[in-house]
């Protein structure tokens, strides 16, 4: 059974699609959000959860105080279940669900210049067999100015033997943590180097 780990609805169960998704384990989610809360990027955050499946990651963020969460999954069944999970948990006031490919959403957000001050936290848990070119396009779109807030963090979960990917120049990896066969990568926006000051 998949449950929310902590926060206002900690311990509540989630419905997961019968096939086609691979919910992040509670152990990995607990470690991931402990790190994110230490970085100060959850409470009050604007969150984008790509390849959301049941919505476990984004709903965990909402339970822990995120202000706005967008769950995106191409599978209609997964999106419907994520929407139902949000409603059942009473989190539908801050959670929206979009049933479309993550790469299409990322491209549109990049073309629009991002939402307001940008996303504070992006969670990416793609299928293990996702074409790496698709993942690299998604990462490149996230790096477009305006998509991410200045102190944003991007989290990418993949199999230990997952296809290689490339962080765009605008993102720098903070660390990568392995949990069994899962590796979680953390990256942040690269801060612009200050030019020389005139005297």
TrEMBL record:
PROSITE patterns: N6_MTASE (PS00092). The keyword Transferase applies. InterPro entries: DNA_methylase_N6_adenine_CS (IPR002052), RNA_MeTrfase_RsmD (IPR004398), SAM-dependent_MTases_sf (IPR029063). Its EC number is 2.1.1.171. The keyword Transferase applies. GO terms for molecular function: 16S rRNA (guanine(966)-N(2))-methyltransferase activity; nucleic acid binding. Pfam families: Cons_hypoth95. It comes from Isoptericola sediminis. CDD domains: AdoMet_MTases (cd02440). This is 16S rRNA (Guanine(966)-N(2))-methyltransferase RsmD. SUPFAM superfamilies: S-adenosyl-L-methionine-dependent methyltransferases. Keywords: Methyltransferase, Transferase.
